[in-house]
Design a protein that fits this description.
2 copies of one chain form a homodimer. Chain A is of the alpha+beta class. Chain A folds into 3 domains: 93 residues, Hypothetical Oxidoreductase Yiak, Chain: A, domain 1; 186 residues, Ribosomal Protein S8, Chain: A, domain 1 (2-Layer Sandwich); 41 residues, Hypothetical oxidoreductase yiak, domain 3 (Wheat Germ Agglutinin (Isolectin 2), domain 1, 2-Layer Sandwich), CATH 3.30.60.50. Helices cover 37% and strands 17% of the residues of chain A. Chain A is built from 10 helices and 12 strands. A 7-stranded mixed beta sheet of chain A has the order 2-3-4-11-5-6-7. In chain A, strands 9-8-10 form a 3-stranded antiparallel beta sheet, with no helix packed on it. Chain A has a two-stranded antiparallel sheet with strand order 1-12. In chain A, helix 1 packs across helix 2. The longest helix of chain A is centred in the first third of the chain and has 19 residues. The mean pLDDT of chain A is 96. At the A-B interface, strand 4, strand 7, helix 7 and helix 8 of A face strand 4, strand 7, helix 7 and helix 8 of B.
């Protein structure tokens, strides 16, 4: 049996768009959601692309996602805003928030928008990178279902809470750091599960908080571990990062935080005692020329990138990897050669095709 | 021989203030610098307090620190500013920048200030926490002398580049996350050196990039490692964090970045081909009520903190540590019982006392 199927990006995109249309998204929202989801598959972040599509559908069927949201700005100042996502797809709500942040940055230098009552927003990178074409620095973060135990905790109280910072350069491609604030993202566990492999020490703990290498440990009360792996190697700093994302995304906006964040899966009910609405995001845009002339900044970014890329390396490695390089290279290859989709994900997508009477790409 | 001497905070403060006065600081700047430096010693971050005082003096003697700086705002928009620190003490320049950020936040919701031509600013926490009394969230970061090798690099291209995020709560103390973006801060190596102990695997690499446990390795071309320790445990994420701090602090402001950051020690000359001026900081302030009512926000912060503090713990640990707790507890004890100063640091301070004919506290 093949492990994966290669599907041309264009065909996959058309299929995904049809699924969002079948979920009653407006044509514009379907197109946007498709772009966000496909950008994950193209950039090689397979866990956040079409692999999530059936999850969105099930939450929509469970009436936990509203595909006709009335997204509202409920509060604002010249440089800030708060958005109520009306239970919409995060894939639609987050770009909306980012547009507001960019608009505010245009007017007063920077814009910062907290979002409540949203859902999973795909990859943080898509949203942060929206700022780049405006010669702005973009930031995006989101909280997520609790899968992570803070240092010394046996309870899962945080999501993998990613942060993205996207910074424009000149002749060099943009610096795009997009990472979960855990040692390993959940998608990496899924890969190990499919391949029946063990995880390295330092990624997972069992329900008592002891180190574990079993990638299925989370089903038995285990947890992912904050970046740093253990106290001696700075896991308290990874906890700081995840907590920061949680507070900016949810306590500032009025969303659920910590263990109250509703799960992304339809078979788990949201907590009965919510402390806010939906999940939360936090996005920002800073105009480069609110600090120094764009051309000057970009030339120095090129120099920064060139210097780091040409650093002397440890034996066996050809260069230091600039944040954003691997994703951009993946995108170039996959746009040309097609996107490899895991067979289990293909099966999932075929079920959706049947459910909605949509043709699945051959 | 005693390993340390306990000195009452008040006496130490008076001594430090006299040293700054002897360096020709204005009485106001001497008082501020003393407060910033002492706050590190009080909060238990011994590596950033009076242990650095002789370093500041030597850089001043080498004319690399200007104690009568004309600090200038060289560019601004409603929510941003850029400050030229005129080679001043970072201890003075950073609070100045933070006041500008707070002022801007008062007017338009948030304020973000990049700083060039500055020097070592002490602990990031002092500056970020200035926002708290205004019911604002404070942020502070700085780049620093290159001691850290990015993932796969054998060259030291980044400083330990700390970040602080300070968030006010209600009846709970503020959430204050203040951390170097490396697995271990340089101060932890200094402790191991003094005690002739080995470092854990994952903190340091040798000049070829191989793992090392020798806390003196940096003297022989070795490097500190970004948070995460190795690629498999996410050191590329720690590199992203350190790079982010470097770019915000220096590429936005026009300071030196990466390997061009001037060393904090007077016996090493700054690079002959600077790409900017001095070292850089980046500080920010966000008015809580630019997002939601302060009382509502603070009540949720209390709930967040209480929930995390009361999490079930692994055997042997009494509770999850909320960021800022250990430093606040240290401060309470040391204010009352005095500050333990390492004997080598005491010797250093006595040399300063003699140099400037100042009485050293008995």
């Amino acid at each position: 049996m093949k492990e994966e199927e290669i599907i041309p990006a264009k065909d996959l995109s058309k299929f995904v768009n049809n699924v969002f249309l079948a979920m009653n998204c407006s044509p514009k929202d379907a197109e946007l959601s498709t772009n966000v989801l496909l950008s994950a598959d193209l950039r090689g972040i397979d866990s956040h692309g079409v692999a999530r599509l059936s999850g969105y559908v099930r939450l929509w069927e469970a009436k936990r996602i509203n595909t006709k949201p009335a997204i509202k700005t409920i509060y604002e100042t010249p440089s800030t805003g708060v958005i109520d996502g009306d239970q919409g797809l995060g894939l639609v709500v987050a770009p909306h928030a980012m547009r507001l942040a960019i608009d505010k940055a245009n007017k007063c230098g920077t814009g910062w928008v907290a979002v409540k009552n949203s859902n999973h927003f795909g990859i943080a990178g898509y949203h942060a990178m929206l700022a780049l074409e405006h010669d702005m620095i973009g930031m995006a973060m989101t909280n997520a279902s609790p899968l992570v135990a803070p240092t010394f905790s046996t309870e899962r109280l945080l999501g993998t809470n990613p942060i993205c910072v996207a910074i424009p350069a000149d002749s060099q491609p943009a610096f795009v750091a997009d990472f979960a604030t855990t040692t390993a993202a959940n998608g990496k566990l899924e890969i190990l599960q499919r391949k029946s492999k063990q995880a390295p020490i330092g990624w997972i703990q069992d329900k008592e908080g002891a180190s574990s290498t079993n990638p299925h440990e989370l089903k038995d009360g285990g947890a992912l571990i904050p970046l740093g792996s253990d106290r001696e190697h700075g896991s308290h700093k990874g906890f700081c990062l995840g907590a920061w994302v949680d507070i900016f995304s949810a306590v500032l906006s009025g969303a659920n935080y910590g263990p109250w964040v509703p799960p992304f899966v339809s078979f788990l009910a949201p907590p009965a005692d919510p402390v806010g609405e939906g999940i939360g995001h936090f996005v920002g845009a800073m105009r480069v020329d609110a600090f120094r002339p764009v051309s000057e900044f970009k030339q120095h970014m090129d120099q920064w990138i060139n210097r780091f890329r040409s650093a002397k390396t440890v034996a066996g490695e050809s260069s230091v990897i600039i944040p954003g390089d691997p994703e951009r290279e993946s995108e170039a290859v996959r746009l040309k050669e097609g996107i490899p989709i895991n067979e289990k994900v293909v099966d999932d997508l075929k079920i959706l095709a049947e459910k909605f009477s949509i043709t699945f790409p051959k």
